Amino acid sequence: QVQLVESGGGLVQTGGSLRLSCALSGRTFSSYTMGWFRQAPGKEREFVAAIKWTGGSTYYRNSVKGRFTISRDIAKNAVYLQMNSLKPEDTADYYCAAGIAATYDSGDYYYWGQGTQVTVSS
Questions:
Q1: What is the mean pLDDT of the segment spanning 30-38?
Q2: CA distances from residue 95 to 3, 7, 55, 60, 63 in whole angstroms, order as listed
Q3: Strands (E), 26-77
Q4: C-alpha triplet 78, 61, 21: angle, nearest 5°
Q5: Distance from the CA of 79 to the CA of which of 15, 28, 29, 95 falls in 20 to 30 A?
Q6: What digits encode the pLDDT tens for the residues 3-17?
Q7: Residue 97 in contact with residue 116, Cβ under 8 Å?
Q8: DSSP label at 107?
Q9: Are strands 116-121 and 58-60 parallel, antiparallel or unpaired?
Q10: Which of 62, 68, 54 is nearest to 98 (CA)?
Q11: 3-class DSSP state of 90
Q12: Contact at 8 Å (CB) between 52 and 102?
């Protein structure tokens, strides 16, 4: 059974940092792309960042470039999202996901975690 379990969310002030983690289990992810998505209250889920498990190519939405860094630890079977210089507009539930293609479309991701909440106070 494939499982993606996020952790690391919380409350932080504007300008602060958080590191989200996603623990993976249940299959090998060598041919997968791992993504982070977020969904704010009343808004649609949106792409944040993605990384190819093999090769490590990364992709970001424009609004987080230079502030967020996605990475993976192959030995630990985990994906991370380091978030710096956080802004109130980054407040959302953050989800880890796994898919075959490196796309921005949440519909292309097959496996999802339960989400972790990030709140940035002004």
A1: 95
A2: 12, 10, 22, 15, 17
A3: 33-39, 46-52, 58-60, 68-73
A4: 20
A5: 15
A6: 999 999 999 999 999
A7: no
A8: G
A9: unpaired
A10: 54
A11: helix
A12: yes
